[in-house]
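Structural prep section.
Before we set up the soaks we want a predicted structure of the protein with magnesium ion in place, mainly to decide which crystallisation condition to try first. Input record follows.
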Amino acid sequence: MTDPLAILKDTFGFDHFRGVQEEVIGRVLAGRSTLAVMPTGAGKSLCYQLPAVAREGTALVISPLIALMHDQIRSASAIGLRAASLTSADTDRERTIERFKAGELDLLYVAPERANMDSFRRLVSRVNLSLIAIDEAHCVSEWGHDFRPDYRQLRTLLDENLDVPRLALTATADRRTREDILAQLGVPEDGLVIAGFDRPNIRYHVRPRDGLNAQLKLLLASQTGAGIVYAPSRDKSERIAEQLSSTGRPSLAYHAGLDPSIRARNQSAFVASEEMVMAATVAFGMGIDKPDVRFVAHAGIPKSIESYYQETGRAGRDGDPAEAWLFWGAEDFARARTRIEQEVEPDRRPEERERLNALAAFVETAGCRRAILLKHFGEDTPEACGNCDNCIDPPKTIDATELARKLLSA
Ligand code: ADP
Ligand code: MG
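Run finished without errors. Recording the tokens verbatim:
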């Protein structure tokens, strides 16, 4: 199977997953049924469109409105996906059925009414499905605000395709609605993924990088549990792994230059361990199902604030306290700026500059780091989170008058 991140870039033209997209897509690709609760605009469509490309067969998408389906088909077709719908508004239904049968569609959109028809279910039984996505899944629940009895009957189709992962998606689901959706659509309790950008159990720390090795050793002496150290290069990841191993802490390296069998072996050793440190490049992380990662450290700035959010977000998925450490030097930003001006296409430079500036603001602030991080994702927060280095131990600001007086009297 092709790397999801490569599909994200090549097919969809995005550099990063947003929020829980990575987690949801990782689950679907692993064949696990999921209910994703994500705010409007969070990017739910990608959660089934990307697996539709990555997995064999056609993704069946249940959607409540013809207008919604046609919007989706337009944008999916524009990026080269083979998408069609079967609705009363489509005049080429025969042709679509032929394409569906021939395995020529990545995505087929239908309304629940059609999905429930005997004839349609017979058709489905002859076709290889990659997944079944149920968009606007709150319609299945009487507790939700748009109850549609036809959604409830989807259970028959789903039960006839038990080996096909199902992905229910909604923006609006309180606890009761969520539980109802899980039960009605047969998604296991642990298949629930809820977005919202704050990760309150992650504590953010930022430090200047002087004496990085000494700092890493110190950090690891006090930090129990498994963790990831992101290194700026393949070489450095290997060197860090060696150095940590020599201090007695089990540590392995992971980067795209390693043999795939070694990568796979190191990854499973990490997933199985409660104390392993993975020294890695950004090639490591996507789709790794390890809820008890206790810390993520960056030995140098990440590519952008979004990468930072995503990479640190791999810590503490179990909800227990976790730490994010960022070690940086002024030269990191200088190098990143040079890269943008020299390697990025001119029309994308303003956006990349903006993202780098957001990261600089995060690094340099004397205020709450979480507030800056979440503001970038459009979330308002209290002024102080109480769980980042600056909130816990506010930096001493220099009193200019006091300083001036001292200088004058000296
Ligand atoms: P939702 O259904 O959750 O309301 P959509 O799937 O319609 O959201 O996506 C909202 C917008 O976000 C779309 O314009 C989509 O192209 C964009 N988008 C989705 N994922 C990403 C991503 N990883 N990076 C950048 N933009 C994204
Ligand atoms: Mg949507």
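Observations: The pocket of magnesium ion (ligand 2) is lined by residues 44-45 (CB under 6 Å).
Flagged for discussion at group meeting.
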